[in-house]
Amino acid sequence: MSSPRVEDRRVRKTRKALREALAELLVEKSIQNITVRELADKADVHRSTFYVNFKDVYDLYSQMEDAVIQEISSILSVEYNFDTKTFFGVLFRYLADNKKICRLFLGESVNGTFYNRVSDLFEESCVDCWREEYKLTVTTEVLRPYAHFFLSGSLGVVGQWAAGSFERPAEEVVTMLAEIEDTFRLFIKTKFA
């Protein structure tokens, strides 16, 4: 009899295979044209195994999006601070470790719901960090448009990197984004402190 830990590992491996298979298929076609049969075949799992884990293809997609949002949220809560290069380094390691899925969510055909959710996460962290770092007394609502502007550009750079199959060295993109954020932070400090 296998231990629960082994079963957990198998479940994680199966779920990862299904997520990656869906990410690959979504590069070729829209979600409504993907069948459970072809998804299971691509992931090399039985259809019944798929249904043990997910109701349908949309459920898998939704759970993938939720998982990525949760993982990015965890990175933000632990790593987002005044050392922007370290933060972007950790974030980019996560993206590189999950290339297929991140390319799906951050590449050229970025899903609007995902973009809005991740943008909201970053906006809150960004505004909170600026307020704390510079002891700003202006309201969150005053800072939010600035954070949105900065994050739209940053997410655009990340999306371009993902759409280019992550060919540009991550360290180069990390350095560029850290420099841009440091410059933007100086602007926020000068304008509001």
Overview of this structure, please?
With 193 residues, the protein is an all-alpha fold. Helices cover 80% and strands 0% of the residues. The protein is built from 9 helices and no strands. Helix 6 (99-106) packs across helix 8 (140-163). The longest helix has 25 residues, at 4-28. The model has no long low-confidence stretch (mean pLDDT 86).
Order of secondary-structure elements: HHHHHHHHH
The separation of the N and C termini measures: 63 Å
Low-confidence stretches: none
Radius of gyration: 19 Å
Key descriptive features of the protein:
single chain, 193 residues, mainly alpha, elongated
In short:
By secondary structure, the protein is mainly alpha-helical.
Layout of SSEs?
Elements: H1 4-28, H2 36-43, H3 47-53, H4 57-79, H5 84-97, H6 99-106, H7 112-134, H8 140-163, H9 170-192
Helix pairs in contact: 1-2, 1-6, 4-5, 4-7, 5-9, 6-8, 7-8, 8-9
